[in-house]
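Researcher: Please predict.
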Amino acid sequence: MHTEFVQNVGSILAIAFIIGIIYVQFTTKNTFKYSDTFIIGYVEKEDPIAIHAPQIDLEFKQNCIDVLIKLGMKKSQANKVADAEFSSINPPKNIQEFLRRAL
């Protein structure tokens, strides 16, 4: 269905298009500068923060455990409750405060 004229015009346009692409590639100057390296991220060095846990009086802790046991709590459960209370940010200062928190 295509005539010889249409085929020739198509070939000429294809050749002209290819020549145009080659011409543009060789005549234009690349303004972008590409580097072989790239930055993924930064490492920021921070000073370590020392967190000092308050000193726990072991005798006071044992007294609190003994009080819980005398009130009817099992020894293992009393130890868990005491450990939880004394490892908190604000440990109890006296037995009354401990009992309010624990019970």
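Model: The two ends are 97 Å apart (CA to CA).
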